[in-house]
Amino acid sequence: MATLNDIVAAYVRDFRTDAAREQRWFAIQRTIEDAIWFAAVAQGPKGQRLSHQRRIPAALLAECSRRLLAAARSLSHSRSFDQLHQHVQSIVGGIRGIGELYIYDTALRIGAKLGLEPTAIFLHAGTRDGAKALGFEPSRKTVSMSELPHALRALEPREIEDVLCIYKAQLAGAAMADRGDSRCVGVRTRRPVC
After folding, report:
1. Which of 68, 72, 189, 191 is the most exposed place for a label (fewest CB within 10 A)?
2. pLDDT, tens digit, for every residue of 147-188?
3. H helix runs in 93-156, sequence order
4. What span, in angstroms and rounded, lies between the C-alpha atoms of 30 and 168?
């Protein structure tokens, strides 16, 4: 029977290092333009397409890259992750086939270069399902750290975003287990596609 503490421990054990390594890849790019290009085309350190964007056609990613690179200067002047996220949304959000997960991931990756981290948990795709399992209204755009169960607050907002997606099926049971309800489920350690 998994609790929220078990889920947090499983995330730290199974996913934290890789997630931090991916963020570092974008942070160490030589220029902001390099970071934007790699973020926009969703290319990781080994030249591979990052999993969340694997189904987006290369031509669509190239168009996003072109638009984001044209706005590199204004993107680099973002003062917060929220501002950066909104800016990425305004630049590529209107492109058919580009959704909220792409916008979040791209802003997160560019933010790594700029030293900007989310301070709230952004809801999209799988994270919305995880938040719903914890009792949050799925139509929300974000959840603040202070609203989350205490066990999840041991993680950074970008890590909680991962947890809400990876463990979405287990979260409702874990929340019940934390409240003393015995109808909880085990922790799955294989990462699903969000």
Report:
1. 189
2. 999 999 999 999 999 999 999 989 977 765 555 543 333 334
3. 100-114, 125-133
4. 36
In our burial notation (b when 16+ CB lie closer than 10 A, e otherwise), range 116-128 reads bebebbbbbbbbb
Q: What pairs with residue 122 in β-bridges?
A: 142
**Cα–Cα distance for residue pair 174/99, rounded to 1 Å:** 29
Q: Which residues pair with 143 in a beta bridge?
A: 121
Cβ distance 127 to 158 under 8 Å?
Answer: no
The pTM (predicted TM-score) of the whole model is 0.88
DSSP for 2-34, written as a single string:
--HHHHHHHHHHHTHHHHHHHHHHHHT-SSHHH
12-67 pLDDT, tens per residue?
999 999 999 999 999 999 999 999 999 999 999 888 888 888 889 999 999 999 99
- What is the rounded CA–CA span in Å between residue 131 and residue 172? 9
Give the whole-angstrom CA distance, residue 102 versus residue 98.
Answer: 6
Amino acid identity, position 35:
A
Q: Which of 185, 126, 193 is nearest to 160 (CA)?
A: 126
Q: How far apart are CA 113 and CA 108, in angstroms?
A: 9
